[in-house]
Amino acid sequence: MKIGILDSGAGGLTILNAIRQKSPALDLIYLADESFAPYGEKSPEQIQSRLIKIGAFFEAQHAKAIVVACNTATVVAIEALRASTHLPVIGVEPAVKPACRVSKKRHVAVLATPLTAKSERLKELIDRWREDSQVNVMSSPTLAFAIDGWPESQSKVIETVECLCRQMLEQEVDTLVLACTHYPLVKNLFEMALGPNCEIIEPNDGVVAQLIRRLDQVYSDEAQIDLSSESFGQIALFSTQGTMNMDRLTQWIEDSASICQKEYVLL
């Protein structure tokens, strides 16, 4: 059973790793849409059109479901993708609900890309779950793209993370929502800058749980066999920018030994 996973770059590999840990038998097809990155600088209409093309690519690869492993693409384009494909489509949303529930000081920060930060969907989630919490929405126009350039961009990433964390400490934030799938790749930098008294929330577990639920609902016995298998599936990597960045992508994959394919795809 093949699962398609998409992101503008390396960020969605945090979701790929989580799926791999929970359901290792699944074959995973990862598309890094690097030629179109960063998504945060594109209009909603451009991202919607792009995701429809990516959905057609996954259908041609015989995927059984699509995971939109990008907060920005989820909030502005997931419904357009769902309308264009017969496959189950799972998105990723800022983990506002668990953050507001665990925050002790009731001071929560949501760190997102600019498009996600301004989205109606994020506003709805905050209004629904904040209760008595103070929720500060923060954004960075450069951090996700800089993480894609790791390790050459390491000093820039560290500088940006430390600057953002200083603002959070000044605001006495005790719970941080990483609302971009790129950010958990450098979670250790946030942990070092914020210290042990700040809880850091990422969405991976919720996405994997929803994927497994949808596979079970749509494919029933076929999904149960795949999900319970102790065998290991394969990982295929595709990039819309060529193969020159494959080593950058591979460095973030925990089970890199299972990579069977590295290819360029033109969309």
Per-chain topology:
Blueprint: E1 2-7, H1 13-22, E2 27-32, H2 44-60, E3 65-68, H3 71-84, E4 89-90, H4 96-102, E5 107-112, H5 114-117, H6 120-129, E6 134-139, H7 143-148, H8 154-170, E7 175-179, H9 187-194, E8 199-201, H10 204-219, H11 221-228, E9 235-239, H12 246-250, E10 259-264
Parallel strand pairs: 1-2, 1-3, 2-9, 3-4, 5-6, 5-7, 7-8, 9-10
Overall pLDDT level: 94
Q: Characterize the largest beta sheet: strand count, sense, and whether it forms a barrel.
A: 6 strands, parallel
| Helix/strand order | EHEHEHEHEHHEHHEHEHHEHE
Q: Give the low-pLDDT segments.
A: none
Strand tally is: 10
GO molecular function: glutamate racemase activity
Catalytic activity: L-glutamate = D-glutamate
Enzyme class: isomerase
Family: Belongs to the aspartate/glutamate racemases family.
Could you explain how this protein is built, in words?
The chain has helices at residues 13-22, 44-60, 71-84, 96-102, 114-117, 120-129, 143-148, 154-170, 187-194, 204-219, 221-228, 246-250; strands spanning 2-7, 27-32, 65-68, 89-90, 107-112, 134-139, 175-179, 199-201, 235-239, 259-264. It is an alpha/beta fold. It folds into 2 domains: 2-92 and 204-264, Rossmann fold, CATH 3.40.50; 96-201, Rossmann fold. It has a 6-stranded parallel sheet with strand order 4-3-1-2-9-10, sandwiched between helices. Helix 3 (71-84) links the parallel strand 3 and strand 4 (89-90). Helix 2 (44-60) crosses helix 3, helix 4 (96-102) runs parallel beside helix 6 (120-129) and helix 10 (204-219) packs across helix 11 (221-228). The longest helix is centred in the N-terminal third of the chain and has 17 residues, at 44-60. The protein starts with a strand and ends with a strand.
